[in-house]
Amino acid sequence: MKITLAYGGGGEETNKLIHDLFYKNFSNPVLESAEDAAVVEMNGKTAFTTDSFTVSPIFFNGGNIGKLAIAGTCNDIAMMGAKPEYITCGFMIEEGLEFGELEEIVKTMAKELEKAGAKIVAGDTKVVPAGSVDKIFINTSGIGTVIKPGISAHNLKKGDVVIVSRDIGRHGTVVMAHRYEVETDIESDCKVLWEEVETLINAGIDIKAMRDATRGGLSAVLNEWADASGVGIEISEEKLPISDEVIGLCEIFGFEPMDLANEGTFVVAVDAKDAEKAEEILKKFNSSASIIGEVTDDRKVVLTSPWGSKRYIELPKGELLPRIC
Amino acid sequence: MKITLAYGGGGEETNKLIHDLFYKNFSNPVLESAEDAAVVEMNGKTAFTTDSFTVSPIFFNGGNIGKLAIAGTCNDIAMMGAKPEYITCGFMIEEGLEFGELEEIVKTMAKELEKAGAKIVAGDTKVVPAGSVDKIFINTSGIGTVIKPGISAHNLKKGDVVIVSRDIGRHGTVVMAHRYEVETDIESDCKVLWEEVETLINAGIDIKAMRDATRGGLSAVLNEWADASGVGIEISEEKLPISDEVIGLCEIFGFEPMDLANEGTFVVAVDAKDAEKAEEILKKFNSSASIIGEVTDDRKVVLTSPWGSKRYIELPKGELLPRIC
């Protein structure tokens, strides 16, 4: 069975899709009240974010566009020290998409939402004629109450320590491998990160800044932090966790692992006194978590090799990999 | 100048687009803090909604896709008796789109936001290769504090009065005319409706249910209400405001004005005692506002002609007009 334009018309078929697929999988009273907007309870500081997902292919090693859509938005909320609570979901579907593919995407989303402890409370479905969109795009927006206020890219000070939650470059490598039709066993890191973040907060770690290293990769996060806080960051190449497969494929295709997108990997800057404790906590979630460097006052992002040579890491330029997420 | 894939890579060019176009037009401190998620203050009941806009053509009589994106999301919030406060915006742009077109869309959005008294506090930009999307899709999500709680499609009771805020079918007719290359002076009704709603609330009108009649038109709203509240609704054909141009074009193309999308027209069900007062208020915003009918207990939506004949109005079926909004 294929999705036809009628499913996007706002009439009977749209209602059927909403009831038989979306309500069935995202079931909760707020969503099912089917008002123009969801009404939820919020108190005090609220994190609010949006992300559109256009990844190609829509199914990849370690996930699919639906898993990405939940992880991406929940993670942006978590990075502000907030618990992902309520999510909205906008589907833009090309007519002719197999219903089974949409169903698999939706089921994956429901599973990820459960892990995040979040709910989809409002949605929108557009079906567009063949050629107006490639298969499916998904937008997710989300809100959550800030549990630990004050986390910000503007907070970094000399001496703060930078930790990465796991080995970098996986999601970008997986999409690149699909794109160039290279067979590989590497899986995307795509994952909701709230549990890791909540554990850091509950352990009383003095978190200065936190960011998931998505498009633009680790290079973009470090440069944006350096710029926002008016500091430098020095990273030790030998401490940077990168799997052999990622290094191998990056060498073949001429990519820099630090520039590649991650979808379940975050960077956290903490006060030096808490650095080892934070690393230890993150290692329980993924053994490759590692302290990778520290904040300096020279306003540049620098990578130091094991033999002492240094090179600047800049904000990535150019098109990198279109439709990576 | 054209938008290239590099503008979506998450690196230097993306930053340039964000600073030179989005921050410049949507300027506010929360957005410009450029964190992973916006942090805003919310209290108590919050309305939360999302909508993706895929309209074709992206510029039409009376508006463009940007105006639609702000009006659509602000209106969904307003329909819950909530003030639209914070908006997120996800752009999905086809490479090759003229920068000038994007700029015009963004400027229109800024103007509409000002009318709504709302702010864009977070955003996302994807640029996808030619052929993966047609020109531009925009998702907007929004939150707002509920000022008048309890408005719901489930509230209708026999005797409540149904009012429409202006003449129906304009937006659908305008898009249809563009699609069939018919010249017309009709303008879309596309408009933020918060001022109208706020005035009704401040006047103490006992609002039962409120909904903007977008995809599926007035037919969809009335059927969804009847279904949600387990009631019927009887509409008087002679009181239904429809412009002559809309009637004329609908006759030519075989559309039913009640099924056509509106983007700045809402239906409100009020307690009978407040009906005339509510109509009077809405007439100040648009002289075609009209009491159109009342809630019955027969579980059907019925249209009564001036000579007394009745016909059922059903939930629209089939594809209607794809990419209407």
From TrEMBL, chains A, B:
Cleaved signal peptide residues: none
Domain PurM-like N-terminal, chain residue ranges per copy: 35-146
Domain PurM-like C-terminal, chain residue ranges per copy: 157-303
UniProt cross-references to Pfam families, sorted A to Z: AIRS, AIRS_C
Alphabetized InterPro entries for the sequence: HypE (IPR011854), PurM-like_C_dom (IPR010918), PurM-like_C_sf (IPR036676), PurM-like_N (IPR016188), PurM-like_N_sf (IPR036921)
Biological process according to GO: protein maturation
Family to which the UniProt record says this protein belongs: Belongs to the HypE family.
NCBIfam families assigned: hypE
Full protein name: Hydrogenase expression/formation protein HypE
Lineage summary: Bacteria, Pseudomonadati, Campylobacterota, Epsilonproteobacteria, Nautiliales
Gene: hypE
